[in-house]
Write a structure and sequence with these properties.
- The complex is a heterodimer of chains A (about 500) and B (about 400).
- Chain A is of the alpha+beta class.
- Helices cover about 20% and strands about 40% of the residues of chain A.
- In chain A, the strands form six sheets. A six-stranded antiparallel sheet of chain A has the order 6-7-3-2-1-25, with no helix packed on it. In chain A, strands 12, 13, 14, 17, 18 and 19 form a six-stranded antiparallel sheet that branches.
- In chain A, strand 23 and strand 24 form a beta hairpin.
- The longest helix of chain A has about 35 residues.
- The two termini of chain A are about 25 Å apart.
- Chain B contains 15 helices and two strands.
- A two-stranded antiparallel ribbon of chain B has the order 1-2.
- In chain B, helix 8 runs parallel beside helix 15.
- Chain B is globular, with a radius of gyration of 23 Å.
- Chain B starts with about 25 loop residues before the first helix and ends in a 5-residue tail after the last helix.
- Classes of the chains: A alpha+beta (about 500), B mainly alpha (about 400).
- Chains A and B meet through helix 1, strand 4, helix 2 and helix 3 of A and helix 1, strand 1, helix 4 and helix 5 of B.
């Protein structure tokens, strides 16, 4: 029994949600999911803009990057039912003014790990890809004052009307037609009683509303798992210990994503001038430890990307203080060969290249269009040697490179790959489950390398200043480059246009 | 009428309007009244079967018609009565901010405006807390209050017409109890989530049922001129609900939202109606017995305490104690045992629709379907039974008062 308002009102409210809501998600402050991969013969870029509430409408856009499609369908699939527990897929409609771009809206009805099955059909055949997403309530919409004032005025009008009707009922309704009598006193008493009863009912309604709101904030609104972080000195090394603080029911089992149970990032505040990408080892069911590299002392923001067995992903956050390192003769012996860090001052906002060790240089190639919030972009980088020739990139954790983006104030954080910001492990879980229904299902995550460049698809969630760390492996050594990005305020207009 | 405060004077030359035939607007209003619960039942079925909806689903349209048709009709009545009404029509109206129309018309218009208010409130609610796939929520309650206003207004129009009709004309009296049955159905829909057969051994069901059902049945019984008004009221409720129980599953329907745990392929019907006809018969019998009792003679020189005991207020209060206690006893005995049958495999057929009411998102197993729910959370104890009985007595007393007032409504 729901009554929907006009479409314009919905759009206004959605705009307000996007403008005022502070979002927390598996990728901090960056809720949109972006993915590139093959749907059969078709290279596609899929963007999922999840709703801030559950149940809510997710926006799906599918861009066919090569070739053309006759039909694109999308289907929401929950982790515990597979596609057998899903209805018929929705047909994505071509977007006017865009070539090979299709869009659809899908209802996400329950919280938890979901995925969007994208099917593409065309002259080249059929293909499917799976985009894992989290379905969680992340926003609590405040009622705009003008909206509340309009509702209140309407409510007062109805309340006064009701009291007047009660007065009329007592004063006149029992009189024979044509009869005139003075029943002013009982009418006034009845109206007074009506005011009391109505006030009590409204107070009861207010209490009910408050209890629903409290339940939403405490139980339905997504809260990431709590973690604690500490550092101890041991044998001349600094050991970072991360503890999952919730009880066994609140900390589901983790599965490795590109080979690691936890991808942990440290960023020194406030200057963002020291960065580390570590892979702590599991010591106990809820305790993970890692040897710290030679990071300068200071306050650090900690982000830990994990994937649950269900396919649900989280970025756990904490703060940790790195103390001054004791004088040691030996260098830190890192616990994982894929750990890497960078401790040096950042770039200026205009710098588009950075010198790396071994005479290498990292370059940020300008995108075709200026950066804009809530608009898909491709962040393209290239590593060149002393001769200016592209360096040979080795596989680092199974891919060409990694990028980490953090807003200056830490309200946005995301861990990107050339295929987007999904968890490969989560995608794999959905594929494995679906193979019980479709044995020949093949899903290819990511696209073939784009020449000698590394390209990261992304949507900046809001205007502001960001720092980007790019990590690649060249000649057996992991290199970290750092760049600054500024997303201008005018992108708010672009957001409004999109809506 | 309070004799001490009323100074009645007949208006010379004013002819009192006595309805001989039913005005056409009564049938239009009746259609609107029926549209509301039928539209809501259809909508609940839509959400249980298909899930996805828009502003323009047929179920929504039917519900909106239920608000708009009576609202527009009564708006027209108000304009006509105030600006173009004959002296007789204006004489049979009440005043609202200087405008004149029958009382019921003002209540209907108020209900329609309240339904309108619920729409933006509900829309904001969905954006703030997510689409609520449940009946009991604050904006839905505002909508329900609006619907209640529309139906009550129609009830008042019908009862005023009944009260002005000749005794031997049963049409208006029948229409009055018909609308009372519609109101009973609306109340039952609002309590659906606590009233499924599997919940009928939990205390919550009896606590919630103890208030609206005796109120409507007893109010109808007190105000109606028919011989079995409560029984007919309950009969209307059961008939309308059974129509939906039997007709909805005839239509194919498939879920359009994920996850689907219960792959339904036809429209999900509501649960089999409560057997309210049984306590309704008891109410009618008691009311008939009460009417046969000789009216107390109060002499002006009787002591004050004797006058109080013999007054209508105290007699009605004592009657409410009996009616409330009997309603609760009969209602509980009926539903407690009937629900055992309804959740059994024997009721798993088109007639009783046992378990057929489960929506596409229901995750329950076969065993779960055939057992009672909420027994630990809401255990049925003697204390709860007494609380429910007290609730029924209070509801019965309010029902008697409402019925008494309605029996006097003329305008």
């Amino acid at each position: 029994m729901d009554v929907e308002g006009p479409a314009l009102m919905r759009r206004l409210l959605l705009l307000l949600v996007l403008l005022f809501a502070g979002r927390v998600h598996a990728h901090i402050g960056s809720p949109n999911v972006i993915y590139e991969g093959l749907a059969g013969p078709y290279p596609v870029r899929v963007i999922v803009r999840p709703p801030g509430v559950v149940p809510g409408l997710a926006e799906i856009s599918v861009r066919i990057l090569q070739g053309s499609a006759d039909r694109v369908t999308v289907l929401p699939v929950r982790y515990d039912t597979g596609s057998k527990g899903s209805p018929a897929p929705d047909v994505a409609r071509p977007v006017k003014g865009e070539a090979n771009l299709y869009s659809a809206e899908l209802w996400l009805m329950t919280s938890g790990a979901h995925s969007i099955f994208v099917n593409v059909e065309g002259v080249a055949g059929k293909g499917t890809t799976i985009v894992p997403i989290n379905s969680v309530a992340t926003t609590r919409l405040e009622m705009p004052k003008w909206y509340g004032a309009v509702l209140l005025a309407f409510g007062i009008f109805l309340a006064v009307s009701l009291v007047t009707i009660v007065g009329s009922a007592v004063r006149e309704s029992m009189l024979q037609p044509g009869e005139v009598a003075s029943r002013r006193r009982p009418a006034l008493i009845s109206m007074g009683c009506a005011v009391v009863v109505l006030s009590l009912l409204l107070l009861g309604g207010r209490k009910w509303w408050n209890s629903v709101d409290s339940d939403y904030r405490n139980n339905r609104l997504y809260k990431p798992e709590q973690v604690g972080a500490s550092i101890r000195q041991e044998g001349g090394q600094q050991i970072l210990r991360v503890e999952r603080l919730d009880g066994p029911r609140g900390r589901p089992r983790l599965i490795p994503d590109h080979g690691k149970l936890m991808h942990l990032f440290l960023v020194r505040t406030p200057g963002q001038d020291a960065f580390a990408h570590l892979h702590p080892e599991r010591k106990e069911a809820h305790i993970y430890e890692s040897v710290l590299p030679e990071l300068p002392e200071g306050e650090y923001r900690l982000y830990a990307d994990v994937t649950h067995e269900s396919g649900f992903t989280q970025t756990l956050t904490a703060k940790v203080t790195v103390p001054k390192r004791e004088a040691v003769s030996a260098r830190a012996q890192l616990s994982d060969a894929d750990d890497a860090w960078l401790a040096r001052d950042g770039q200026g906002s205009s710098a588009k290249s950075m010198d790396l060790s071994g005479g290498l240089k990292a370059e940020w190639l300008s995108a075709a269009a200026p950066l804009s919030a809530n608009r898909e972009t491709s962040l393209t980088f290239r590593i060149v040697d002393t001769n200016g020739m592209p360096a040979v990139l080795e596989s680092y954790l199974g891919m060409q490179g990694h990028a980490v983006i953090e807003a200056r104030d830490g309200t946005v954080f995301t861990h990107l790959h050339p295929f987007g910001n999904i968890s490969m492990a989560s995608q794999q879980r959905f594929v494995e489950r679906e193979r019980k229904n479709r044995q020949n299902l093949e899903v290819v995550c990511g696209l073939p390398n784009k020449g000698d460049s590394i390209v990261f698809p992304y949507e900046f969630p809001r205007p502001g200043d960001y720092r980007i760390w790019v990590q690649v492996k060249v000649a057996g050594e992991i290199r970290t480059a750092v760049f600054d990005a500024s997303v201008p305020e005018k992108s708010t207009g672009a957001l409004a246009a999109r809506l | 009428m309070n004799a001490s405060s009323a100074i009645a004077t007949a208006v010379p030359g004013t002819r009192v309007e006595r309805a001989g035939t039913l005005p056409a607007y009564c049938y239009i209003l009746l259609f609107g009244a029926v549209c509301i619960p039928m539209g809501v039942l259809w909508d609940v079925s839509w959400h249980s079967t298909i899930g996805r909806d828009t502003f323009w689903t047929p179920a929504h349209m039917l519900t909106y018609l239920g608000g708009l048709i009576p609202g527009l009709t009564c708006g027209w009545m108000a304009l006509k009565t105030h600006f173009f009404g004959s002296p007789e029509q204006r004489a049979a109206s009440v005043s609202f901010w200087g405008f004149r129309a029958p009382l019921g018309a003002w209540v209907v218009i108020w209900g329609t405006f309240t339904m309108l208010l619920s729409a933006p409130f509900d829309d904001w609610w969905h954006n703030a807390y997510g689409l609520d796939v449940k009946i009991l929520s604050p904006p839905h309650t505002v909508l329900a209050v609006g619907m209640l206003g529309v139906a009550l207004g129609i009830l008042f129009l019908m009862v005023s017409w009944q009260n002005r009709s000749a005794e031997e004309n049963p049409v208006a009296a029948l229409l009055f109890v018909f609308v009372a049955g519609v109101l009973l159905l609306m109340a039952s829909i609002f309590l659906t989530e606590a009233s499924l057969p599997n919940s009928q051994h939990a205390s919550r069901f009896y606590l919630m049922s103890s208030r609206p059902y005796p109120l409507y049945l007893i109010a109808a019984a007190r105000a109606s001129r028919l011989r079995w008004p409560a029984t007919i009221t309950a009969g209307v409720y059961m008939t309308l609900l059974l129509f939906m129980v039997w007709v909805l599953p005839l239509f194919e329907g498939h879920p359009r939202l994920a996850p689907v745990y219960n792959p339904v392929d036809h429209m999900v019907p509501p649960a089999f109606p409560l057997l309210l006809i049984v306590p309704a018969i008891a109410i009618d019998l008691l009311m008939r017995f009460y009417k046969r009792l000789p009216a107390p003679v109060i002499t002006p020189d009787a002591p004050r305490w004797k006058r109080i005991i013999k007054s209508g207020f105290l007699r009605d209060s004592l009657l409410a104690v009996v009616l409330g206690a009997v309603f609760m006893g009969v209602f509980m005995a009926t539903q407690w045992n009937f629900s055992k049958f309804l959740i059994s495999p024997a009721a798993d057929n088109w007639f009783f629709a046992g378990g057929h009411f489960l929506p596409y998102y229901s995750r329950g197993s076969e065993t779960w379907r055939h057992r009672f729910w909420d027994m630990e959370e809401y255990p049925m104890t003697m204390r709860v039974y007494l609380l429910a009985t007290i609730g029924a007595i209070i509801a019965a007393r309010i029902g008697l008062g409402l019925g008494k007032w309605m029996s006097r409504v003329q305008r």
